[in-house]
Amino acid sequence: MSIDSPTLGGRLQGWPPFIRELDATLSVHSQYVLSGNLYDSFLAPPLDGVGPARLLPLRDLLWETIRSSGASFMVVYDPVDGLQVHPEAGDEIGDEAARAAERLLGKLKDEKPSLEGLTRHLAAVARPEENIRAAFVIDSASRIARTPTDLEPAERDFFRFCAKLSRSARPVRVAGARPKPLYNPVLWLVERPGDLPPWLTADNENVREITIPRPHLGDRQETARLLARAFGVSDVGSDAVAAAACDAFAEQADGLTLQSMIEVTRLAKERNVDLADLPDAVRTYKLGVLDNPWSRGHLRRRVLEGEKRVPERVIGQPQAVTKTLDILKRAVLGLSGAQATRSGSRPRGVLFFAGPTGTGKTELAKAITELVFGDESAYLRFDMSEFSGEGSGDRLIGSPPGYVGHEAGGELTNAVREDPFRVMLFDEIEKAHPRILDKFLQILEDGRLTDGRGNTVHFSESILIFTSNLGMYVPGQDLTTRDGGIPYASAGRVQNITPGMSYDEVEQRIKGAVAAHFTEVLNRPELLNRFGDNIVVFDFISVEAANKIFDLQFANICKRVAEEHRLVLTVKGEALQQLREWCTSELDKGGRGIGMALESHFVNPLARALFDRELVPDERVTVSGIRREGGIVHLDLQ
C-alpha cells in the first residue's frame, strides 16, 4: 500500500504537523499512539476557509480530521465515562453520527466501562461489517493498566487482543473525498509512550507513535493575535502597538501551552489588565502569586542606599561590591539578558562569586537578600559538596516516578514553587557532580526546570548566586621527565594567587582558572558561557580591611559579653595591639580567619578567666595583658 498523494499534497494545509502526519498515513497504519501535549488547544483553519484561525481541543481536532476523510463518527472511551459518540446527538451531524454508531456498535446507552466491552467495540470499529468509516479514541490510556510491565490477567488479555487487532484490522472504502481504502484508526492517548506495554508497539509496523509537541513561537504569536480580540483589537496587523504587545505576550509565554495562553487572557480580563500588560498576567499565571517585589517603588531607593550600606558590611571588596550592585540594578530594571531575543523567562540575576575563602562572598549574598527582600534570612543556601554523587541530584528536583520519595518532590523545586521571589545560593559549586551541574543549563537559559513529578518550576523572578574557591590553587608543572620527555612526576597543586598581587592580576588568574575548570576539567564550556561576564572576583583582604574586620568582630565580642553577663569589657592598648597582630597576620585566610583567630586567642582564654570568678552585674573587667605560654593564651584581668 502507498500513502495517497492527495494527503501529501494539498489536504489539511495549515493544520498542525502531527495532524497532517496522522491524516497522511491512515492507509498504512491501523493504530496510533499519541503522547505529549494532549490537553492543549490547537490552531486549525476556519471552517469556510475565510476569517481567523480557530482554537480547538484535541478531540474536536481529531474529529474534524477523520471527518474530512469520510468518517461518520468517532467513539471516545475513557475509564471514567466509558463510551461516548462524538459528535454528540442534537443536530443533523450529531444525529447522523449516532445512527452510524448504532449500526456498527449497537446501543451504547448506560453501558458500564469494562475491558470486555471495550474489546468488543474495538473489534467492531477496526474490523467493520459494513463500509462505515470511523475512529476509536482511547483517552487516558495510561490509566488502563496498573503498570505496563506487570499486567494483571485481564489487562494482559486485553492488550494481546489489541496487538492482534492492529494486524487484522480491515481498511474501508467509502465514497467521497478519499475513496481509497483507509483504516478505521484506533488512537491511544497516553501521557508517555512507555505507559503502554512495550511489546504492543515494538516491531509492529501497524502501530505508529506520534508525539504532540508544545507550541512553538509562531503558534504562540498567532494565538496571541486571536486572543487580542478579547481586548477589542480585531485587526492586529494594522495596529503596530497591538502587534508588539502580542509578540511580547508570545515571547513571555515560552514554555506555556496555547490553552494556558487562553487562561492567561481570562486572568487578565478578570484583573482589568490591558493588552500591553499581559506579561504581568503571564508572570502571575506561571508563579501563582499576585505581589511582585521587583515592582515595588521603594526597591530602587533601597538599592541606592545599598551603595553606602553594603561596603560597610562587606569590607575591602570595592570592585566586587560595585559589580554586584550593577547586576542587581539590572535585575531591578528587568534588563537581565536584554540583549537576547527572548530574555523574559531567564532568572532576574545570575552571579558567580569567585576568589579566596573568607573574603565576604556569603556575606554579600546575605546583603543582597536583605536589600531586595528586607530579610537576609530569605536566601536559600545549598552546600554543593553534598551533591558530589551522581544520584544526589534527585534531592534538588525529586526522584523519578517509581522511586522512593517520588511524591515528595525536590528541595530546590519545592522551595521555588513555594516562593519564587528568592535569592538562591549554591555554595562551592565546583564540588557538585558534573551531571548535577547540567541541571543548571536549563535554569540559566530558559528560567525553568521540570521536577520529578513533571511539574514545571519557574526561576524568572529569582537571583541565583554561585560561589567558588576555584583559582586559589592550580595544577603544578611537571618536575621531571623520563627519556623522551614523558613526564613521571608532578608538583601537584600550587598556589595561583597570593596576597599583595594587584586586583587586576588576581581577577585575570581566577577567571582563567574558572574557565579552565569548566572547559578542560568538567568539559562544560556551555555552562561557563551561561555565566558570561557575571563572574565577580573577590580580592584578598588588605591590611586596612583586616583591621576594620578585626575592630568589627572585637566589638561584637564586647557587645555579647555585655548582653549575656552585664559586664563592661575593655582591653588596654598594648594588649589590644598584640591581639590585633596575632589575628591579622594571615591575610590569605580572610575575614573568617580573623574570626577564628579571635576565638582562639581571645574568646577562649576570656571564657576560661570569667568562668573561674564570681560575676557581678555592671562590673568592669579590664584585660591589661595578653601572653602566650606553651601554645596557650592567657589574659591578665583587672
Automatic annotation (TrEMBL):
CDD domains: RecA-like_ClpB_Hsp104-like. It comes from the Bacteria. Residues 541-634 form the Clp ATPase C-terminal domain. InterPro entries: AAA+_ATPase, ATPase_AAA_core, Clp_ATPase_C, ClpA/B, ClpA_ClpB, P-loop_NTPase. Residues 347-500 form the AAA+ ATPase domain. Keywords: ATP-binding, Chaperone, Nucleotide-binding. The keyword tRNA processing does not apply. PANTHER family: ATP-DEPENDENT CLP PROTEASE, HEAT SHOCK PROTEIN 104. This is AAA family ATPase. It comes from Actinomadura fibrosa.
